[in-house]
Structure formats: C-alpha cells, structure tokens
Amino acid sequence: MEKCIFDQIVEGKIPSKKVWESDSVLAFWDISPVAPIHVLIIPKKHLQDLNSVTQNDKEILGDLMLAVPEVAKKLGVKDSGYRIIINNGEHAGQLVPHIHIHLLAGKNLGPKII
C-alpha cells in the first residue's frame, strides 16, 4: 500500500511547517487555510478514518485529543477560542485517508458550521 501524504510528512519525506510535536502526534500548518490559523493535527500512526479504529487505538486517539489544547496554547488561541473539525469519509470532505483534526482560529468564526 502506498503511504499517504501525511505518512510521508511524518517520515520527513515531504516538508511541513511544524507547529507542535510529541512522540505520537504532529501538528503543522495547512497548505490551503480557510482561517487565519489553520493547523492540522495528526496521529503519527496511520489510521485511515474513524470507522477503521479499534479498541487498540484508544491511547493514540486520546493523545490526539489531548494535543488540541497544547497546540491552541502554542498558537495563542487557547483562551480566545478555536474550532476543531474531523471530516470522516468522502462525503464529509475527507481528502486525505488519515485521521486528522483541523484547528481553526484567528478570527471570530461565529456559529456558522463550516
């Protein structure tokens, strides 16, 4: 199976503008931002989508969620607010087959659902 673009970013084969990193999670700037701050937060382990996770993935999913406030703090938006989005599947707009969280901030995002 060919590695997805996010796997290649984790391996350092494709450059990214890193924001934050731990042993299991990587956060980097989105190359097509929809807000002034648009960062992708991904598990370093390849997980295709939420439908493919198992009980064995609980720890990495926890690490992924715990990374969100750490990234928000690093970006200076933890207190002012941010939106997170996980697209799951083609009809939801998931373009890369690797679970990832979009963290959006830097302006008033209001109640509108993106």
UniProtKB/TrEMBL annotation:
Show where the HIT domain sits: 5-114
Q: What is the lineage of its organism?
A: Bacteria, Bacteria division CPR2
Lineage, top-rank taxon, reads Bacteria
Any one Pfam family here would be HIT
Protein name, as recorded: HIT domain-containing protein
UniProt motif Histidine triad motif: location: 98-102
- One GO MF term attached to the UniProt entry: catalytic activity
Question: By its UniProt entry, which PROSITE patterns does this protein fall under?
Answer: HIT_1, HIT_2
